[in-house]
Amino acid sequence: EDGYDLWLRYKPVDNVSLKAEYVQALKAYSAATDKSPTIQVAVDELSIAIKGLLGVELKSADQVGEQTLVLGTSASSPYIASLKLQKSLDPLGDEGYMITTKKGNVIIAANTDIGVLYGTFHFLRLLQTQQSIKKLNITSTPNVKLRVLNHWDNLDRTVERGYAGFSLWDWHRLPGYIDPRYIDYARANASIGINGTVLTNVNANALVLTPAYLEKVKVLANVFRPYGLKVYLTARFSAPIEIGGLKTADPLNTEVQQWWKDKADEIYNMIPDFGGFLVKANSEGQPGPQNYGRTHADGANMMAAALKPHGGVVMWRAFVYSNEEPDDRAKQAYNDFKPLDGKFDDNVLVQVKNGAIDFQPREPFHPLFGAMPKTPMMMEFQITQEYLGQGTHLAYLSPMYKECLDADTYAKGKGSTVAKVVDGSLNNHRLTGIAGVSNIGTERNWTGHLFGQSNWYAFGRLAWSHGLSSEEIAKEWIRMTFSNQEDVINPITNIMMASHEAVVSYMTPFGLHHIMGWGHHYGPGPWIANKHRADWTSVYYHKADKNGIGFDRTASGSNAVAQYFPEVASKFGSLEECPEKFLLWFHHVPWTYKMKSGKELWNAMCYEYQHGVEEVENMQQKWQSLENEIDAGRFEQVKSFLKIQKKEAEWWRDACLLYFQTFSGKPIPEDIPKASQTLEYYEGLTFPFAPGN
Ligand code: BDP
């Protein structure tokens, strides 16, 4: 096995009695004779899966007798219509489904064909994870409307912050050649409910909006359509100048407005269900409305007006900060966007990263969540592991996503979680969304690290249903990816559940952040200083000195805490109450500060780095115990990567402790292994091979 099949492997069910139950229940299927492309896809998937799982051909039933799998809508299936399910189906909306047992038949019913497809994948998951299907009574609807992958893919097929090869989109061979991989990509996404894909990098190239590229985009959209996957593009703000020949891109200029309208008309003429634009503006050198003295709302609304007649949306990113701005970087997005609440048109979502800096191993939730009640706030998570070990570290990110979603903003009193802001329930928004920066590329197993697949999987599952637990999701994924045997599920669950914390411990314990290598972000670089942008250095963030370490974001410092609602602000702002995992994010703390463990901060930090390394050793041991349970190809790859991870965890520990010791002036406890090199050695390392150099 090489990992290509992801969680859709459909290996034979090894539990004899369950297999008998399944075979008995699935004698034949019944779907509309005049099948839509989506229903055809569902039937095809069922056939492949049943063949693989049960070793039998799934036959089409002449009529619905007993033990028939019936799929469809009340409109497409007379049998489903005869069951009079409409009352229960109505609340399931456009994408929800029900799976139910009626008169000895399994029924997968929905209001739309895409709902049926989602239900089909859910049903298959039951078989793959070996659940009983004797008496089913399942309904499911997604928590948010737009569940979207963001590919940071360039037109030359390099991928920004990509660690899994090149871009899947073969622009050179499109539109003539449809790589079968596009179809498997769409299947995988549909199987976890992802319904949109932004094909291009947020650092956008206007060329993708030219007719030659749009022809190619159209073909991808056609391939993805039956799977319910809509295509979106990033829109470069200066496109009217670069490809339109205009002198300006000022959003209040009527010619510019007309140019975007015409562009939208052109796109929708080719792709009637085009999703819309994702925009990075006035951020890290990208052009935007502020170049013309206009606001983000002016820019977003101009594009929104062009897309609106066609039903498209604008996902406008709030990832903005400037080195010229003297205020704490963590505060800048809030400062810029909060005053614009209520000024965005109704087909605009503001897309906010989970934290206020940048996808760090751990960040407190972004203060914009809850702060703009009149605006749909779209979550942006990073699935690719830019700051979490890149291509080789095993880090299961569901616990990190959940920590953010479950955080309480107190925007409307206790219980106003980030999840409720994002799913629209807190402020009654119908337009809602969640984005994940993709970790997918041309590598045979899609994500480079086999366990990267679990992050793609978890992102999709949480986007559909944020109430799921990380452990539940991990177990589903393990059962489908490796085995249904408890002695495989348990150790891998343990590995996954401990993995994110381990990375935090050996990289950025206690709220440290942004201390990685310059530019490529590979490896430790707490010494990074004196660069052309202070806000890209490490010393800006850790502020270590002989007295202590950490960024004072309380009232005595940048007062970033004040951007949170009072309950949260007072907790984060208080040295005693601030959770230790965020301590150095919000406080500058003396080296001698007594931690809850009773240890002084310096010692606690040393042991935390060491703990991270030990956790990786534990992961290695658990993985090793699976040698005879997992096919050699996948086993060996993960084993090698864990070895790299161990080495790099030690590198992080040694480099960071030696560096911070120059400030603390305190000894590293004797029982922590001695660094094998000097600080100068670590500082002198260069990485010409690191992606993103
Ligand atoms: C940072 C990445 C950079 C992205 C930027 C963004 O380092 O490559 O362009 O975020 O999200 O994490 O726009």
How would you sum up this structure, described in words?
GO terms for molecular function: alpha-glucuronidase activity; xylan alpha-1,2-glucuronosidase activity. InterPro entries: A-glucoronidase_C_sf, GH, Glyco_hydro_67_aGlcAse, Glyco_hydro_67_aGlcAse_N, Glyco_hydro_67_C, Glyco_hydro_67_cat, Hex-like_dom2. It comes from Fulvivirga sediminis. It is a single chain. With 693 residues, this protein is an alpha/beta fold. The chain folds into 3 domains: 16-140, Chitobiase, domain 2, CATH 3.30.379; 146-472, TIM Barrel (Alpha-Beta Barrel), CATH 3.20.20; 504-551 and 588-684, Alpha-glucuronidase, C-terminal domain (Alpha-d-glucuronidase, C-terminal Domain, Alpha-Beta Complex). Helices cover 38% and strands 10% of the residues. The protein contains 22 helices and 16 strands. The strands form 3 sheets. Strands 7-8-9-10-11-12-13-14 form an 8-stranded parallel β-barrel. It has a 6-stranded mixed β-sheet with strand order 2-1-3-5-4-6. A hairpin with a 2-residue loop joins β4 (97-102) and β5. The model has no long low-confidence stretch (mean pLDDT 97). The structure holds beta-D-glucopyranuronic acid. Beta-D-glucopyranuronic acid binds next to loops. Residues 160-161, 202-203, 280, 284, 319, 358-359, 386 line the site of beta-D-glucopyranuronic acid.
